[in-house]
Automatic annotation (TrEMBL):
<dbReference type="InterPro" id="IPR017441">
    <property type="entry name" value="Protein_kinase_ATP_BS"/>
</dbReference>
<dbReference type="GO" id="GO:0044773">
    <property type="term" value="P:mitotic DNA damage checkpoint signaling"/>
</dbReference>
<protein>
    <recommendedName>
        <fullName>Protein kinase domain-containing protein</fullName>
    </recommendedName>
</protein>
<dbReference type="InterPro" id="IPR008271">
    <property type="entry name" value="Ser/Thr_kinase_AS"/>
</dbReference>
<dbReference type="GO" id="GO:0004674">
    <property type="term" value="F:protein serine/threonine kinase activity"/>
</dbReference>
<keyword id="KW-0547">Nucleotide-binding</keyword>
<keyword id="KW-0067">ATP-binding</keyword>
<dbReference type="GO" id="GO:0005634">
    <property type="term" value="C:nucleus"/>
</dbReference>
<feature type="domain" description="Protein kinase">
    <location>
        <begin position="97"/>
        <end position="362"/>
    </location>
</feature>
<keyword id="KW-0418">Kinase</keyword>
<dbReference type="InterPro" id="IPR000719">
    <property type="entry name" value="Prot_kinase_dom"/>
</dbReference>
<comment type="similarity">
    <text>Belongs to the protein kinase superfamily.</text>
</comment>
<keyword id="KW-0723">Serine/threonine-protein kinase</keyword>
<dbReference type="GO" id="GO:0005737">
    <property type="term" value="C:cytoplasm"/>
</dbReference>
<dbReference type="Pfam" id="PF00069">
    <property type="entry name" value="Pkinase"/>
</dbReference>
<feature type="binding site">
    <location>
        <position position="126"/>
    </location>
    <ligand>
        <name>ATP</name>
    </ligand>
</feature>
<dbReference type="GO" id="GO:0005524">
    <property type="term" value="F:ATP binding"/>
</dbReference>
Amino acid sequence: MNCVRKHILKSKTYYLQVLEDSMILSDHKNMLNPKYIIQFNFETRVMWKVSEQDELCSFGIYYVNRIKWFDSDHNSLNLLKIYLSPKVFFGNISIFYDSGSIIGSGASSKVCLVKVKKSILEYAAKCISKKYLLQKKSNDRMNRLQQEIQILQKIDHPHFVKLHEIYQGENSYYLVTDYLSGDTLYNYIKTFPDDQIPSNQIREAIKIILTALNYLEINNIIHRDIKLENILLQKQNDITSLKIIDFGLAIYTQPQQKISICGTPGYIAPEILKNSNADEYFTHKCDIFSAGVIFYKLLTKKTLFRAQNTMEIMEQNKQCQVNYQDIEYKLQKEAVSLLKSMLDPNPKTRYSAAQCLEHPYFSCKLENINILQEILDKATGFSGLSQIKEQKDTHSIGQESQAAQVKRCNPTSYKIRAEQRKRTKSPRKYAEFQFYCPSFCQMNSFESLSSKGSSSYSNKVSRIENLINDKLDSVIEEDDKFQQNIKQVCSN
């Protein structure tokens, strides 16, 4: 593009060209011997002026501690602004945006909703205080901001928030990104009743997160703060619009960075908290563990590490002793298998994002035990049978304890279910639902087995377990065929 540098006696025309890492201005059309060469880096700053009609009329560059202004037409300058975004810092953010409400805040920054002037377009602007960055004598905070910007400039993926422009004011830096109108994943899952998040939504959400982490691994980036609050829905109540935000702790894998404690308690990979080896470095596996904590929350609606204060949470996080027995009996086996692979305390054997995406969980037919049990309750005359809460009872012994142990639930819960089953007018009705309700299939099989004596108990247990596994594998997914089968069973 052409631009004009005005002088007192005579104005001069310059030819401008934007390259990958710099911008050059020359008074020769062939761009030989350019007078101004502006490298794109953290120090580069471009200023703007607008006319009385609110159209761009000039841009300025810092050269030898002075701002030198160049005039051009609005269309050319607007195109230049697009090409420079987000490679350099702009000044005068108030020229382009109207400030709105604060939609988020943290220790070092706040996020404001901004609206493009004379437009309906809205963006989110992360405002970082210069005072906060310069409080410490070291350059750690400034270097972290610089690295966050560099990483955001590099990322181009639909499941990450996109950086559009960066501005530098007198007191703050501004990172202008997508505005995500939906809620955080943390708040979204709270809208569902206990244990009622649809299986297909859980699988879709964790697949999106793992796909995003696989992209980071390919590009040698570690996020280091994957958590429910840092995953937002771009559209309200649309699980397929998930995007990961906040790269304030993100780093490149090269050069390698030694392990230091960072992240959010409850989501931190245990090797970071233990840090027993001074020569250990951050790997992509720490993000996989954090994603595993999110997967646990989606599957169970419970927090993995629960305690009264942060120190206790950190200690549980460090020890990483996950009790899978409490959830195995009520979750799909493929989901539990993937969960174990993601929460593996050993980073060397913990799955990578690519390995997770190849897991059978993403190709198997989904089970929806909650819906099937509700149908069973109605057919047998009970209400709320699937809502029976487990209670601890150290005095429960005998056959109920043996059956409950194989079923992987506590004896009292098993005994309650067994007694209620006996009171039904038609106990045989349960047999008709064995194919559709695996948990009740196990309960009936073990009770009938215990009533026949214990001589052939061990042989029959293995045979029944195999039968149950076969039935579990064949549970029908929530599609048209599933609905037809349910209607047929209810009519019978």
